[in-house]
Amino acid sequence: MTEEERDAKHWQLLTSFLEKATPVAQVNFARWTNYTDEDILIWMIERPETDLAAALTIYFNMSPNYYAEKTMEALASYERETYELLEKIAKRVKENFYAPSDVYFLGTDFLDTKYINQDALRPIAEHMMKAYKGSIIISHDFPEDFDEGLPIALCEEIMDLY
Questions:
Q1: Which of 61, 97, 123, 158 could be a cystine partner for 92, CB 3.0 to 4.6 Å?
Q2: 89-130 pLDDT, tens per residue?
Q3: Which residue, 48, 42, 44, is CA-closest to 100?
């Protein structure tokens, strides 16, 4: 298998899983995946089928509080890309772009509240900080039978490609 074929198979396995994933599985992936593979996260951000709680998880895992304190000039080029993604997610959440969620989500569960500065240059939007009430509560502990945010069997199938 060539490197291109391997990468295509890896992508196909991830997207096939996420297209069929439950809201809980999407949130677990967003929370526990290795953030070095940001293409799949951007793919999730671009899809209206992505569960709202998964989109919020991606947002808060990207440390919006760090970006709230910086001017654009103070950000490195790679940080500007992250800032733009944060802005895109916040805008889409406000516009109800993402699939409604039954997963309870509260952004401050991800952030140490002592680091939230609502007087920052660009404070985190109120609609991102509110509680999104749902009947499903996900533990903040690493889920059993998962690795890198994926079910063990799928993770092993991907690892076998390499």
A1: 97
A2: 999 999 999 999 999 998 877 765 555 666 666 778 888 888
A3: 48
